[in-house]
Amino acid sequence: MAVVDVDDPSFLALLRERTRQVVTGKPKSPCDLVFLGVRSPRDLERLRDLKTWIEPNGGIWAIRRKGPGSPLRDTDLIAAGLAAGLVDNKIASFSETHGAMRFVFRLKDRPR
Fold this sequence. Notes:
six-stranded mixed β-sheet
């Protein structure tokens, strides 16, 4: 797993309890999951690069602030995912203040 721009020490601690294979930043080889903290539309541009970090059946979780004060809407994330060649397939509550959306390769687009 790779974690990028997620400022949540308790989340990192939970991940590291479950696996030793957690890196902050770019992993040395493709991984199953990337957790990306996004605060602005510009941060979503990173999806295009981050998709090269995951296994063909892996996913990228984009974590953003919830609520009306958030600069990002679900539709912003969905559009950015499609522009990067990814599709959203899950939404989850990350915390009381943040939500997450998972992006994956479409089955027909998965690298072989």
